[in-house]
Predict the 3D structure of the following.
Amino acid sequence: MSDEINRLLALHRYNILDTPAEKDFDDIVFVASQICKVPISLISLIDSNRQWFKSKIGIDVDQTPREVAFCDHAVRGNQTFIVEDTHKDERFKNNPLVTANPMIRFYAGALLTTKDGHNIGTLCVIDKAPLKLTPEQVSSLEALARQVVSLFELKRKLKIENELNQKIVENKITMDSFFETCPLMMGIVQVNGTEIIHVSDNKATTDFLKTTNQFSYPLSATKLGAPQEHISLWLEHYKKALTSKGPVYFSYIHGGRYLKAVVNLISNEDSQPPKFSYVVIDETEQIQAQKESENQRAKIVHGSRLTALGEMAGSIAHEINNPLAVIKASSQLIEIELKREQANLNPKLFEVLKRVDTTVDRISKIVKGLRSFARDGESDPMLTLSLNQLVIEALDLSQTRFKSHGIKIDFFSKSNECLVTGRAVELVQVIINLLNNAHDAVVDSAEKVVSIKIEVDPVSAFLTVEDTGPGIPVEIAEKIMDPFFTTKPIGQGTGLGLSISKGIVESHHGEISHKRVNNKTQFRVRLPLAEAAQKAI
Ligand code: ADP
């Protein structure tokens, strides 16, 4: 790059060309003209093809072409440029500024030299008569020229600083409005021992905590209404962030909302106690949508399993029933034959035969129950049914499981003939679901008892299944009837039992409810009595 280009760059970085007059510079040219006792003084800046006057005294024009400028000669040298009498100087005697206005006879220009050594103009003094400056006047002029450059520098720095401050203010406004309007909860806290002090929280946080305008900051988390267990949880993660010096993520539930938080040490400050930033995102909707789609998938899987089970049950029942009929007929034949030769026979043989017979009956019942349980009973007709009989059918299917886990079953019925109108397959399914849940509840308890009770009033029948299990925690009590709600491990619970049972009971114009009575969990099904039964009561 040529020197002239660098010189022009140096001039332009001050951004001073064509700016209005300023008192600071006008004072300098005034002092210069006073010191040198001349009528004209200028701060002249040499642009690419003109000289422009930042400040002037004794002259009206703002600029002249560069080729006639005395200052152009000055900036090419490296010291104060003085022409004591232009008429005696070959270079200037025909210069239009000499031959015409302002009729220059005397010129002295002290260089305006930048820090990096570029001569960008002069502080000059001019007279219309020849003149000789004293050395003191020359050095005063040079001192003033240095002041001009210092002022240029100062103003440039001030401008940069102002622009920077302006940017900082703009950035702060942007950051503040980002902070306030961001839909994620965020803020800054200090951790002092076991106390979390909120230095600032954004609107999303105060809206979530419903504390807007209530308090002034800084504010302790306790005052913000955070429960103690949440404070302990946050403290634990702030401590982790302090040691790891990196972001720490964790999830928790607040007021039924699923929240994911990240905390981080604000490391550019050495503040004591340490400062942290936090951001919290409410993921409730996403999690619910995810659960919903998992539920749908489980529903499809479950549905297809039930269909497969139903189909299998039909053919298994068919396959088992035929050999069972053969066994039963054969045992009866043996009994007849044995009775003929009774005299010589051990009586125990009859007992054994009797046992074979009752076992065959029991297997038949189980197969029948399995078949009806797996079948979809929704399209069956509504018939008058004995509730006692339905309980016995359900028990036939369940009692082996109860026995094998040492669970005692009590069955009390206050009415021998408790008749309801309904679909047997569906009602047996309800009773089995309640028995299964009672089984699961007591299986690990010290006392393992499940009681089934049937009671009636003039219009309704009540079936109660009670167990000695630990009960239903209050926080899930409202959800247990929801489809797919289960607290059982994967593979053990589908969460469908109670919701299906509720649907069945309601389609029979009844209700299902649960409560804790005498330290026992009680599920109670109410069904309308069949008309015949109502008349009988
Ligand atoms: P599943 O048995 O497959 O979990 P259910 O709809 O039958 O589905 O039951 C839902 C939930 O209700 C169970 O996971 C359990 O948490 C609760 N529950 C049902 N019956 C009882 C009971 N007798 N005692 C304690 N909790 C029960």
Remarks:
- The radius of gyration is 51 Å.
